[in-house]
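In response to the reviewer comment on reproducibility (Comment 2.3), we provide here a single inverse folding case reported in full, input and output, so that an independent group could reproduce the run without further information from us. The structure tokens appear first.
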């Protein structure tokens, strides 16, 4: 399996120190660990929102420093734990992302389908100011998925969700990865349900790799 990301001797302040890490492409890769272990910092490095102090970071074999940041963020889309939601309707929020990325937006019927899939109010014209934190997370996730990126970076996508909606989101994401062969790197504080659905789990401790292991059954 081709690597999506490759990190070699990467350091960032006193937050991260990663001698060697390969994140596989076409798979769900989960980064876990305690608060302050460097999980979100790692995601930001992968999206080139920040640059490492030392070392090299590659995306599909190309040094990330040589990739235009705008082009990279069209190919690699990140959704933060507290995503920015624009004033206006749910539909406007989704369409704005396509305007910024110069892509044809989805139809209203497609937006309705995705809202229903993620247990959100089906009316795409509803104002976003009435959404809860968990609903905003799911709206931002829908917005990112509809852009059809090569790679999706998610920071605690289920943190504000109940068990039912966590199950819905995780099932969709695992199907999305396996169906379309896309890459997903997801930060999570943990939870057996999240780990069980991941292909690989990376445990960070004080900015260093404590262990990395596959969750696939033996022989798979």
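Designed residues, in position order:
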């Amino acid at each position: 399996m081709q690597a999506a990301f490759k990190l070699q001797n990467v350091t960032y302040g006193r937050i991260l120190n990663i001698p060697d890490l390969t994140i596989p492409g076409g798979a769900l890769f989960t980064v876990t660990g305690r608060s302050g272990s460097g999980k979100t910092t790692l995601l930001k490095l992968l999206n080139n929102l920040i640059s490492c102090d030392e070392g090299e970071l590659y995306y599909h074999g190309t040094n990330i420093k040589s990739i235009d940041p705008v082009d990279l963020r069209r190919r690699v889309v990140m959704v933060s734990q507290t995503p920015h939601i624009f004033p206006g309707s749910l539909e406007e929020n989704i369409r704005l992302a396509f305007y910024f990325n110069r892509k044809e937006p989805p139809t209203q019927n497609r937006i309705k389908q995705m809202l229903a899939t993620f247990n959100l109010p089906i009316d795409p014209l509803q104002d976003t100011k009435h959404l809860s934190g968990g609903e905003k997370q799911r709206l931002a996730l829908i917005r990112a998925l509809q852009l059809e990126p090569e790679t999706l970076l998610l920071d605690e996508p289920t943190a504000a969700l109940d068990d039912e909606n966590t199950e819905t989101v995780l099932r969709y994401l695992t199907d999305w990865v396996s169906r379309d062969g896309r890459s997903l790197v997801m930060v999570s504080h943990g939870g057996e349900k999240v780990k069980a659905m991941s292909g690989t789990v990376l445990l960070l401790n004080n900015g260093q790799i404590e262990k990395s292991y596959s969750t696939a059954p033996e022989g798979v």
